């Protein structure tokens, strides 16, 4: 016998009740999801606020004390260029500008290639001093009170060298040369003091690295400048002495980077291995055994180091714009066209340096790929600064040559005779 079917009205009531229950459950699920989303947003906002507060605490230069022990700063740690470092770059750009003024003065006076050679000798030493100081600051500079005090001491030596550049593009026997050497010795002494502090606090391979790649090159530089300033080297040999001193102190810290880690040929300047690991140099001792030298390369903070190069380069390019921006009383189409073309050349330098990277992934950067590509990258950027400075001096001389009101020659027509009718 078939089961009795419920009335049609009851069926419709049951269907409506089921739909209302489903809608209520959907609304409850939506309300729960919205509440969970709000909780998630609140947690993220609280987390971001706590992170911002922690970043503000980390950015305070006195947060770790006035004179904390030095700490090796690794890649991956968030780090920005400090105001002290930007001010440091401005001081060096002023030095390059002063040298460019002296070079142009000597070239206008007929100085010739010797003036350019002297300019390059001083420019190489200034660039090397900037590079060595920033290699230290990239590894250990945390903008504490110690570095806030030692940085102006270092810049004082740079200023001493800057104010005694006058006359050195003409001859290295100028009276200013001994005082210039005093400034160079002062800068080397400050660097020796900074690296000695690292050697005192650090242990193991980092101490050896501070001695071998920090103190030894700067001690050699201080001794060389002292001999040059004391007049031990004759004037005729001083330019040769300047270039020899640069080659020695520039490549002295590079040779250990190339030779020491011979058992790890793919080591980069951002060495990921622990800094206490012993990298062996297979050099036979007098007894015939193979010895190990406990020296490891303290890795660079590559993101910060490349940013330092970029900041200095953009300031140098700004100084080139200042060189071609001269007060003028000449309002000719040729002068304004020359200014525009000179500015276009400087802008092309900017595009060349900052806008030609194939990719922005720092994992493929030359400093991180291999130690040889890293050294080559530093040398190429180092050389570009000299090329920018020389090109800027040439562009400024072109603008100066056109920024002259042409003299009107006296009329060659005969003056009328007083007796002429």
Question: Strand-residue fraction?
Answer: under 5%
Low-confidence stretches: 50-57, 262-266, 272-295
Helix count?
12
Structural class: mainly alpha
Number of strands: 2
CA(first)-CA(last) distance: 155 Å
Range of helix content = 55-70%
Write down the secondary-structure element order.
HHHHHHHHEEHHHH
Shape: globular
Q: Major β-sheet, in short?
A: 2 strands, antiparallel
Provide a descriptive summary of the structure in words.
It is a single chain. The chain is mainly α and 421 residues long. It is 66% helix and 1% strand. The chain has 12 helices and 2 strands. It has helices at 8-59, 83-108, 113-140, 145-163, 177-201, 205-229, 238-251, 254-259, 302-324, 333-354, 366-369, 371-402, and strands spanning 283-284, 290-291. A two-stranded antiparallel sheet has the order 1-2. Strand 1 (283-284) and strand 2 form a beta hairpin. The radius of gyration is 33 Å and the shape is globular. The relative contact order is 0.09. The model is unreliable at 50-57, 262-266 and 272-295 (pLDDT under 50).
